[in-house]
Amino acid sequence: MCEPRGLPTVRPVRLPGGSGAAERIEGLRGDPRRRRRERSVGSVFFAAAALSVVVSAAIVLSLAGEAASFLSKVDPSSLWSEGWFPRRSLYDLRTIVGGTIMVAGVAMVVAAPLGLFTAMYLSELASPRARRWLKPVVEVLAGIPSVVLGYVALAFINPELVQRFLGGTSPFSMLGAGVAVGILVTPLVASVAEDALHAVPQALREASSGLGAKRTTTTVRVVFPAAVSGIVAALILGLSRAIGETMIVAIASGSTGGSLLSFDIVGPGQTMTGAMTALAVGSDRVAVGGGGATVNPVDALFFVGLLLFVMTFALNVVSERLVRRMRV
Amino acid sequence: MGAARTLGATPARVATQDALRGTRMDLGGLLLHGLLLGSLLLTLGVLATLLLQVGTTAWPVFADRGLDVVTSNLSSIASRAGVWQGIQGSMWLMAFVVLFSFPLGIGAAIYIEEYARGTRLTRFINANIRNLAGVPSVVYGLLGLAIFVKLLGGVTGGRSLISGGMTLAVLVLPIVIITASEALRAVPGGIREAAYGVGATRWETIRSHVLPYAAPGILTGTILALARAFGETAPLLMVGVATGFLSLGGGGLVDQLQGPYTALPAIIFRWSKLPQADFREGLAAAAIVVLLVVLLAVNALAIILRNRYERRW
To answer: Whole-angstrom Cα distance, residue A38 to residue A244?
Structure first.
C-alpha cells in the first residue's frame, strides 16, 4: 500500500471486534484531532463569509440611523425649498436629485450607444484574434480611476468643448461632467453587454445563417433580440454606476457650497454625490447659524447617502433579475 | 450570368462563393459594420486622446523637474510640490487591503465554493455579495465614517490612516470574494475527488489540491482588486483623507497609523481644484501620470501572471 504523499498520515482504521455498529462507525471517522481541526477551519471560513452579511447590515444600519436623526432634527419644509444650501439649512432634494438625473442622463446618452455597439462588434463581427486583443483593452479601460476622468473633464472637456462650442460661461458644467461619466461607464456597459451577447446559443446563429440570413441580419434580428434582457441589464448597471459616480462630478460639475435648482446643462449644478463630497471635504462643514440652524450639515451626508444607496440598490436588483431571466 | 463569366479566370471556389452571395452590394451590412467598428474605435480613440492630453500637459513638469515631482513632499509652492507623501500613504492603504480583505475574501470564497456550495444560506450570501459589489464607493466612505471614524474612534484615532485603510479593505472585500470564487469554481471536481479518494478531509483537500490550482486565478483577481483600491478617492474623502498640507511627524508606528495621511488620488483631486494654474494644470496632470503608471504596471503584472500560470482544463 502506498501512502498518499503530502497528506497527514491517516490512522489505520481498526474495526473493534465484537462491538456495536456505533463504535464501528466511530472507528471509521478517523483521528479525533483531525476532525476537530476540520471543524474549526470550517467555522473560520464560515465566519469570513458571514462577515459580508455583517458589512451589508452595517451599511444599512449606519445610513438609516444617522439619516433618521437628521430627519428628526431638520425642518421638513427645508427639503423642498429654493436650493441646496446646507449652511443656510436649506436641503432642497429636487436640486440634487435633478442634477444627478441630468448628469446620469448625459452619461447614458454617451455610454449606451458606444457601449452597445462596441459589445456587438466584439461579440458578433470581430475576428477571434481581434477579440482576444480588444476585450482585455476594454477591460483595462474600465479600470481607469474616476479622479483621472474628473480632471480630464475639468481641464479639457469643459473648456475645449462645452465653453468653446456650446457657449458655456462657467469652467464647470453638468454636460462636461456627464460626458466624462459616460466615457467612464462605456467600458462597463460594453463588457456586460458583450457577456450577454456571447451567451446567446450558437445554434440560433447557425439556424439564422441556415435560412440564408447575412451576418448583420443575424446580429440585428436574431442575436440582439435574444440577448435583450441582458443588454437592458447592462444599461441599468451602467446607469446605477453613473448615479453613484462621485469624483468626476465633484471635480467638474461645480458642486461647491450651494446651488439653486438649475436645468442649464452647460452650467454648473449640484448632484447627490457632489453634495456629499462638498459636505465631507469641508466647504460646507461650518454650520453658520442662518435662521438658527441646529442641524449639523454633516448629518445631511448620511441622508443623501441613504437616498443614493436606495436608488442604486433598486437599479442593481432590477439588473440582476434581468440577467437571471436571461440565463434561464 | 456573373458566375459563368468569371468561371474561366477565377478558381471555382471563389466563383461559387460569388454566385451564392449574390451580386447586390450589402450596403446595410457595410453600414452596420462601419457603425459598430466606428464606435469601438471612437471609444478607444477618445480615451487615448484624453490620456494623451494629460501626458502632454504633464510633460513640461517632468521635463523641468525630472523625478523630483515624485520624490518631493506636498507644498504650497508649486515648484517644490510633489506627491511622495501621497505615494507613501497609498502604499500604507494597500497594506491594509492586502492584510484584511485578501485573507477574509479568500476565506469567504472558500466557504461559498467548497463548504456550502448551493445551499440556501450560500445563495443568500452570494446575492448579498453581488449587491455589495454594486454599492457606490462613496457609500462605503459613509460606512467608514460611521464605524471606523466615529464608533471606533478611540482605537483608530478618528480620521486616520487606520480608518482609511479599513474603509478601502471593506470596499474591496466583495470584489476579492467574487474573483476568488470564480478561480475556485474553475478547478475541476475531479481534482477534489482524487484527494477525497485517498482519504483527505475537506480542509486537507482544499489546502493541498484546490488552492494550489486556483492560486494563479486568485492572485490575478486580487491584484486587480488592489488596483481598483489604489485609484479610489471618494470613500477616502468621506473618512477624512488630508488633501491640503501634511507634516508627517515622527512618532512610533501606532502614532503614524492613528495620524493623518494622504493618498495619491486625493492629491490629484485637491490639485485639480486649486485656483493656481501651476497646480491645476501641470502638477495635477503629473500626479495623474504617476497614478496611471502605477496602475498600468499592476495591470500588466496581473496579465503576465495570468498568461504564465493560466491552466485550461
So the answer is: 42
Using a 10 angstrom Cβ sphere, with 0-12 exposed, 13-18 middle and 19 or more buried, the burial of residue A7 is: middle
What is the DSSP pairing of strand A90-91 with strand A259-260? Answer: unpaired
The DSSP-derived string for B131-164 is HHHHS-HHHHHHHHIIIIIIITHHHHTSSSHHHH
> Rg for chain B (alpha carbons), in Å?
27
CA angle A233–A236–A240, rounded 5-degree value: 135
pLDDT digits (tens, 9 = 90+) for A18-47: 556 666 666 666 778 888 888 899 999 999
Chain centroid to Cα A313, Å, comes to: 9
Q: Which residue of B has its CA nearest to A113?
A: B39
Contact partners, residue A130, CB within 8 Å, separation at least 6:
none
> Nearest CA to B135 among B211, B232, B207, B39?
B232
Residues 197-226 of B with CB under 8 A from A: 198-204, 208, 224
d(CA A76, CA A92): 10
- Which amino acid would we find at residue B24? R
Asked if B170 is an interface residue toward chain A (Cβ–Cβ < 8 A), one would say: yes
Asked if A49 and B26 come within 8 Å (Cβ–Cβ), the reply is no
> What's the ipTM?
0.85
Whole-model pTM? 0.86
Nearest CB partner across the interface for A147, out of B114, B233, B285: B233
User: Which of A324, A301, A34 is CA-nearest to residue B144?
Assistant: A301
H or E stretch including A56? helix A32-73
A67-83 pLDDT, tens digit each = 998 888 888 888 887 78
Task: Give chain A's radius of gyration (CA, Å).
Answer: 28
